[in-house]
């Protein structure tokens, strides 16, 4: 069976790209088709061992972050890709759609959906450029046509797989398609083994792209007032100025992008983990923290409600206001967190479970099509 993988774009290496990495390991001979590839980027380095095929329009959108303002080209970008030679196409789709490519009538298309494009349906996004009136007008026109493309391309998928019940509801709401939940793959056992016997240190940890929708500045202010250090792992993205704001706050250490080995060490030593994105699609970092024995303070929304057990593996809070976060930290300090409970919860989201479920779903689809 000839298999191809599709992904939005190869740029930053985040949760969606970790899923792609596992899918690529499962199908090592499958090329990866993508809108564009930024050579030398963190994501590009992770897929240096794979064949990556860019769209013909990649040269026009990959530089100076033009892929976002030129998003009206998305239907042309994906429509220019002919994947009709493949028996199975697995698309890892999110904000840049990764659908609408050409396939043959016999090609099976499976979508692993991280989320329908957030900017199309009123969800908070990383960078709020629509505060400018000219951007709002532009977005109103372009997004209308992109929603039409999003709907039509969604109807050409044979099987929808989603990363959470949260996204399952969105897929039904916007596409009227049933989907199956397969939680993203987390290297749980590696994290558990790495954190054994390691003494906790007096800092909280955040792992996030440095963007405005993640509550980073509020968390930094709260930990500062509480007398704790805060380490933040992640890269600045697009036009966001959050990095400059964080650099002005004392007791905050910006780590940038670091190796997986160093990342595991930070998880293991952290006294707690903070995740404040509103309506997060899933949130793999929360699971990684729990597997490392670090309880979580998370916003009570989105995928966090599926991963964090309130008062057992962390605290769920209803606001990202710095005062609310500070009060949560004070409450956090009074708990006696149980490593065993944290680890047992994290094992529900292991890589092994992901691979087993994906293979079972795809085997059933292929068998049904024969």
TrEMBL record:
One Pfam family linked to the record: Glycos_transf_1
Residues of the Glycosyl transferase family domain: 194-348
InterPro entries for this protein: Glyco_trans_1, Glycosyltransferase_grp1
Signal peptide: none
Cited SUPFAM superfamilies: UDP-Glycosyltransferase/glycogen phosphorylase
GO molecular function, one term: glycosyltransferase activity
Domain of life from the UniProt record: Bacteria
UniProt name for this protein: Glycosyl transferase family 1 domain-containing protein
């Amino acid at each position: 069976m000839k298999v191809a993988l599709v992904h939005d774009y190869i740029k930053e290496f985040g949760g969606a790209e970790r899923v792609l990495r596992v899918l690529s390991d499962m199908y090592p001979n499958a090329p990866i088709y993508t809108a564009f590839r930024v050579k030398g980027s963190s994501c590009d380095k992770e897929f240096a061992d794979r064949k990556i095929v860019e769209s013909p329009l990649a040269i026009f959108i990959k530089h100076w972050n033009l892929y976002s303002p030129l998003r009206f080209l998305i239907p042309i970008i994906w429509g220019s890709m002919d994947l009709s030679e493949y028996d199975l196409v697995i698309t890892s789709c999110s904000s840049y759609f990764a659908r609408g490519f050409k396939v043959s009538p016999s090609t099976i298309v499976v979508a692993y959906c991280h989320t329908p494009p957030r900017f199309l349906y009123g969800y908070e996004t990383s960078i709020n450029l629509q505060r400018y009136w000219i951007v709002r007008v532009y977005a109103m026109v372009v997004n209308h046509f992109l929603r039409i493309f999003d709907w039509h391309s969604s109807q050409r998928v044979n099987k929808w797989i989603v990363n959470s019940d949260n996204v399952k509801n969105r897929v039904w709401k916007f596409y009227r398609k049933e989907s199956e939940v397969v939680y993203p793959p987390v290297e749980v056992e590696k994290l558990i083994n790495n954190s054994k016997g390691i003494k906790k240190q007096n800092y909280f940890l955040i792992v996030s792209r440095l963007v405005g929708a993640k509550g980073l500045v509020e968390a930094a202010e709260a930990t500062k007032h509480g007398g704790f250090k805060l380490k933040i792992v992640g890269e600045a993205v697009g036009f966001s100025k959050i990095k400059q704001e964080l650099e002005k706050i004392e007791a905050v250490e910006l780590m940038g992008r670091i190796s997986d080995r160093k990342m595991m060490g930070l998880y293991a030593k952290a006294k707690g983990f903070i995740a404040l994105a509103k309506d997060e699609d899933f949130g793999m970092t929360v699971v990684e923290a729990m597997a490392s024995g670090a309880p979580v303070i998370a916003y009570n929304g989105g995928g966090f409600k599926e991963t964090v057990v309130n008062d057992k593996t962390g605290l769920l809070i209803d606001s990202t206001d710095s005062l609310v976060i500070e009060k949560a930290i004070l409450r956090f300090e009074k708990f006696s967190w149980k490593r065993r409970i944290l680890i047992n919860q994290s094992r529900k989201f292991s890589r092994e479970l992901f691979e087993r479920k994906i293979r079972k779903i795809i085997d059933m689809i292929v068998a049904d099509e024969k």
